[in-house]
């Protein structure tokens, strides 16, 4: 915890240990926090780490927002109780917002602030809040949590049920009216008087005035940040090791291509190969710093939080990232230089070796600092990657290699002089070609060969330019690091606002009938109690229901579901023992997460699956639903008496995941239409399907949101509660018989949770089997369930059975166990149940609740019920479907393509930025290479024209590959959910992802191609324009599909970007621009033929210049353009047909590998 390091004195460790203990984090104290890509602590533990991070500091005022999300009620109570003691003993001030506080947690607070519609409805002592509302005419019912009452009494939908004066007409009281009344209430009056009285300064405390901005001195802060950065580097050692290995591989490839036995020093042309080798070294080292960009962006959210809380100044955070990377730079550059220098045959003088080493060290430092600056300015991955790619494009073109200085237009000369890459490249070639090896004269020449080579490429020939380059690189390194510090200091995160999507039309529709519209919870509770009585009496315990009851449940449903029960007997689940536990001395091979769990879930019965954190609730649900991707499963599972088969079970079941995973760029209605399209039987016609969707939308109260975009959680689109209802609806439109819901009320306030539970109840009442895991339920929500399966730590059940009226069955069972404390009046049975069944209570009482349950009459009744339901009913048939999926392969392809169309069309951050970037690069490169396409008088003119093609192919191609990776990664998460639900096979999804790119890349290629073609001045003939656009289109497509493929074969986007970048450098080297194909050693020439970039340049150059008979000057004398292209590059115009076929084959191959990888690999670990 960083703030503990920034706490004064030697008591930091003691404070940290104490906070770990009260937050229950000792068990994971040495576990990495993790994120979406790295497995770490659980969501509830992460929430507690956030709380602990603030507590370990010496803060006297704490503001805590929704700290209980994902925690069970007993853990929340423990944390809030500790905070209460902290406040009272240390005289601190704490304000906490909670979503669904249990009564015992609510009772810990001294004061209450109730907010509604931007008004403070009540502020004052907790003891007087009910008195205020009773004066206003509203009374909290018995067995109703006060916190739940307070959240609902200001709601238009729920207020009327609490009206106490039944003899008087009810009128809705607005939040503003409550607020005005509070000012005249005695608590409000005393508060107003207190605020109106001037503060007595004699009562102030010295600690109230802070004299220091930070907790400790700046040197201590720097040491803390250095220590953390070093720790992060160690934990992230894979990246640095991979980069080092990548450099070593590239160095070996480079030294074998430019091998000294193949390199000659007898002409300017051969000298150009050495120039290419030096340029490639600069490019490789420059690109090596690109990894800083994604690393910095990924860490910025944490930095902004800690900066704004004054953990440290920005420079203290920025310097360690620079300082600790310097030794790494020496090692990485050392691997490159010491492997390649003598193998390639550069000047043998050892001083020049170390001078080259110095330049490349400075290039790496400059590049790393530049990309850190770009990341801090971009602040978001897509924006930062676009800025980074654009910056690279400018630096690349202005390096002096792609376009020589003498050919740079006067309006771009400033770019040449400020390009750090130019200074690095000039220092490199100056160091080499002014050495002894290059001082001999060629026949008929008045200058040394080295000077001639420098002049032919437009480089500086004076020796002092080496030191100018070194000085400039040092200056740029300092400048970019200073800019990075300024960006961190003054820039804030890019604004991301959660859209508030109003459901007011729904309210207005109902407002006309107050009895029907505002008395929502009353009607729910009535249906709850009626249904509970129906299920808990008579034969319902054995699973049978009367036809009349069944008819009532499914009445009005256009597509009634077929009822199915699920039983599980002695189910076990274990995984291989984690390495961390083996290191602690655990000798077992496997870790058991479920230990012989048994139970039955039946149609029309709403079952709660509960237990403390780590009890195995979600694990059991995943096992039953068939969502586990690894581990060892044992026991018997039956569906309506027949053994469960996952292929058929997926067709009749639904799974509502806790994370609410949906495609962000489709609307609510489109999400449901898509799910129904793929999951309902093809025999159901389109009109019936749409009517069923409308019915489901009404059932889950989504009609008012039908045209709202789903969006990304916490960023835009639907609220958390609305997303929960959408998740339920997406499963319901498949018309499943059995539905699993993982924590459907987590992250919701009491009223939103009630809305979701109403949806769940409505679902059960249609005759479906529904099971929910649940945290922190209020009394109302808990008692809306019919049955409970309670688990203890370690994966064993300790109660399986009905709740009874007011939880009477549950309470009687636990109170019947000797030593268990009786429940207090008004206490939440869910909280009491968890408190009396903890491991600590087991040790105190000397009993094992799992054994008590197994020796009970309830267990024997459940076993009998499981046996009864595990026998098929007379005349019933096992589940059978003629095909694995509901729809045909073609329908799956059409549905997936339809969704991808809307996802792309509504994603301007990807599609629009791609077009804007291409247009900007076209304008920049076009102005740089203005009118250089048709004037080919000497070989450098041809190099310049080819340079424009080379820069476009690499820079736009790589940008395409990088940009598509996050898009595919987001959709892949949705794909895993949809595939597990049996919506489609992998291939239709992959084909849709591939096909949707075709029109977008076509527009990109045409826009870019026409702009650059006109500005550079290539020859305007139909054939040449067609070939140029053809090769650009398939090149961009190749890179796009390569980016998609790299995501499909790797576990996450971070690794895919590292792996894919390894090939860019190799493609660059074998492209034919740095080293022409005829001059590549024969043992590497095969890779040139396997390189898509080489084929792209072949097609572009050969189609433009392969048939031009015009004379030109080359280093070997005068020749034709066609002859030079053929002899120097090995490009033949009459080979264009074959080149076109190959350039089409590359995207096809990458697309096929993408599709096969999507089908074969599943990186989701459950």
UniProtKB/TrEMBL annotation:
Compositionally biased region (Polar residues): 539-549
Endoplasmic reticulum listed as a keyword: no
GO cellular component term, pick one: plasma membrane
Record-annotated membrane-spanning stretches: 238-259, 271-297, 333-350, 357-377, 383-404, 464-487, 998-1018, 1025-1043, 1055-1075, 1087-1106, 1135-1158
Residue ranges of domain ABC transporter in the record: 566-818
Matching Pfam families: ABC2_membrane, ABC_tran, PDR_assoc
Main subcellular location: membrane
GO MF assignments: ABC-type transporter activity; ATP binding; ATP hydrolysis activity
Keyword field: ATP-binding, Membrane, Nucleotide-binding, Repeat, Transmembrane, Transmembrane helix, Transport
CDD domains: ABCG_PDR_domain2 (cd03232)
Compartment(s) of residence: Membrane
Region ranges (Disordered): 528-559
Gene3D superfamilies attached to this UniProt entry: P-loop containing nucleotide triphosphate hydrolases
Membrane-topology annotation of the record: Multi-pass membrane protein
Similarity comment: Belongs to the ABC transporter superfamily. ABCG family. PDR (TC 3.A.1.205) subfamily.
This protein's name: Pleiotropic drug resistance protein 1 isoform C
Native species: Glycine soja
